[in-house]
Design goal:
362 residues, Rossmann fold, 2 domains, two-stranded antiparallel ribbon, 16 helices, 8 strands, globular, binds zinc ion
Length: 362
């Protein structure tokens, strides 16, 4: 792809609502022309797919396979081998981020259309073509991509409302960063994940996600506590799953996500969720680009209100000294979208931003 060409990828169909899962077989039949589908699912939500089809539903048979918990090449091969006759004509991935990723890899290997059914709004992965493959030691070893975005993304907000609160907070954290990351990525001319220039629409989506989350996150979390999706909950899920996913993939990322390379190398952060880490990373990004103290304070106030981390101790990490901060910063600079800022931005700026932030947020 010519990097002077703007490009953006979308799922063909995005469906969201309290009973969206009732459309599973209809969508398999109508959108993917499938009579037999392979469902790769987290065991905890397997029951959603093991019930026989209801009266009036299209006759689509489902072979349900339970995901073992880690998205490795071996797991992808195991699931592909379990696929039996009649040959599947589509793959459905259901569950958390890793289950969705392994289903993406299975669909790539079997060369079949893909439906994604996230059961938590914990990250921006559902609409994306990226797949994070791990080794047996839980380290990311490769990020292959689908040939196109998932064909159908089916988001049942009744199911998502029953997921743990912390997962939705993490999804809000993963989405809140995009406004600042996409605008920086566009400014630096970063090549997006579709292999071209970012589009103005990516920034529009990132800003819409930000504004929605600032306005509706508290209300959405209250709705979740009641177990009843309401309008605020629907808007927040749409921001966290649809806007955030499209924004990062076709817009790009910056320090908030780049800092992951340093943070996830520390054993202490193993219990922290992706969205928690990048939300913290956004605070460091704002420091590195010298945003006003009042803007950072305002964002930290929002984080505290909903339970996102504001200090490194909130993600399990002791306050780094100068050399540890520099090591974290140097790893951050290995992300190509952060390196695109070099020499305007160097590891020493990021290290200083981290140290300043910890001092001020203490
Ligand atoms: Zn993310």
């Amino acid at each position: 792809m010519n990097t002077s060409t703007a490009v953006i990828g979308f799922p063909s169909v995005y469906i969201q609502g309290p009973n969206a899962l009732q459309q599973l077989r209809v969508q398999l039949h109508q959108s993917l022309n499938a009579q037999h589908a392979l469902v790769v699912t987290d065991p905890v939500v397997a029951h959603l797919f093991e019930a026989p089809s209801a009266a009036g539903e299209p006759d689509v048979s489902l072979q349900v396979l339970h995901f073992s918990g880690e998205c490795t090449g071996a797991e992808v091969q195991r699931l592909c081998r379990l696929s039996h006759q009649p040959a599947p004509q589509a793959v459905v991935g259901a569950g958390g981020g890793k289950a969705l990723d392994v289903a993406k890899a299975v669909s790539l290997q079997l060369n079949l259309p893909l439906m994604i059914v996230p059961t938590a709004a914990s990250s921006d992965a559902p609409t994306s073509r990226l797949i994070a493959l791990y080794d047996e030691q839980h380290r990311i070893v490769a990020v292959p991509t689908l040939r196109r975005n998932p064909d159908v993304v089916l988001v049942d907000t009744g199911v998502i409302a029953r997921a743990p609160r912390r997962l939705l907070v993490a999804g809000i954290g993963d989405a809140i960063t995009k406004r600042h990351e996409v605008s920086r990525a566009l400014e630096a001319g970063v090549v997006n994940y579709c292999g071209g220039k970012g589009t103005g629409l990516s920034l529009l989506l990132a800003e819409q996600a930000y504004n929605t989350l600032r306005r509706d996150a508290v209300g959405a979390l209250e709705a979740q506590a009641r177990g009843e999706p309401d309008a605020a909950f629907e808007r927040v899920v749409e921001a966290a799953v649809l806007y955030s996913g499209l924004a990062f993939e076709s817009g790009g990322l910056c320090i908030a996500h780049g800092l992951l390379r340093g943070l996830t190398a520390q054993a202490e952060t193993q219990q922290a969720l992706h969205g928690e880490l990048v939300a913290y990373g956004l605070l460091i990004q704002l420091r590195a680009f010298e945003h006003d103290e009042s803007e950072i304070e305002d964002l930290m106030h929002f984080y505290r209100e909903i339970g996102l981390p504001t200090r490194c101790q909130d993600i399990g990490l002791p306050v780094p000294d100068a050399s540890q901060a520099l090591e974290l910063a140097e790893r951050t600079m290995t992300a190509p979208y952060v390196a695109a800022w070099s020499p305007r931005l160097q590891a020493s700026h990021i290290a200083q931003a981290l140290l300043t932030h910890e001092q001020r947020a203490a």
